[in-house]
Design brief:
This protein has 167 residues and is of the alpha+beta class. The protein has a single domain, classed as Peptide methionine sulfoxide reductase (Metal Binding Protein, Guanine Nucleotide Exchange Factor, Chain A, Beta Complex), CATH 2.170.150.20. The chain contains three helices and eleven strands. The strands form three sheets. It has a six-stranded antiparallel sheet, covered by helices on one side. The longest helix is centred in the N-terminal third of the chain and has 20 residues, at 2-21. It is globular and about 40 Å long.
């Protein structure tokens, strides 16, 4: 009976983390100019270079439905980059199947690739992840990932692009 309780508790924790990612955050109404690592773009500039879905996710802190993004079940070898500025974010060998429906990684490509921000939206306390270079919203990070880090970077497919590495 204890094993069943542990399994059910674990599944509920995983589901809560996935449901937390499946929320859309409030949209900032006024345009914001980004000045970070030589990135200087107005919101109008971003609208010109991003698809509507990329803009909704990266600039308006949106999310995609679980199991709907192009990279949640993607298994090629390469680098996942920011769709906004093409900065490298995650390597394919850090990607794992978390079962939540979004691409999940246990480690960023380096310590300066992403920034963490406290997110208290929707009655939850989470850690938002943004691109360190262009400050685009990527997703959230949770403390329920696999070794060696124990982290799960839960990232929207619309916030990233993939560059294949051929052996």
């Amino acid at each position: 009976m204890k094993l069943g309780t542990i399994i059910i508790s674990t599944l509920l924790l995983i589901q809560f983390g996935c449901n937390a990612q499946n929320q859309t955050q409030q949209v900032t109404e006024k345009p914001v100019e980004i000045k970070n690592n030589n990135m200087k773009k107005t919101e109008e500039d971003w609208k010109k270079i991003l698809t509507p879905e990329q803009y909704r996710i990266l600039r308006e802190k949106g999310t995609e439905r679980a199991f709907s993004g192009s990279y949640w079940n993607h298994h090629e070898v390469g680098i996942y980059k920011c769709a906004g500025c093409q900065s490298p974010l995650f390597l394919s060998d850090t990607k794992f199947d978390s079962g939540c429906g979004w691409p999940s990684y246990f480690k960023a490509i380096n310590d300066s690739a992403v920034k963490e921000h406290l997110d208290k939206s929707h009655g939850m306390i989470r850690t938002e992840i943004t691109c360190a270079k262009c400050e685009g919203h990527l997703g959230h990070v949770f403390n329920d990932g696999p070794p060696p880090t124990g982290l799960r970077y839960c990232i929207n497919s619309g916030a990233i692009i993939f560059e294949e590495i051929k052996p």
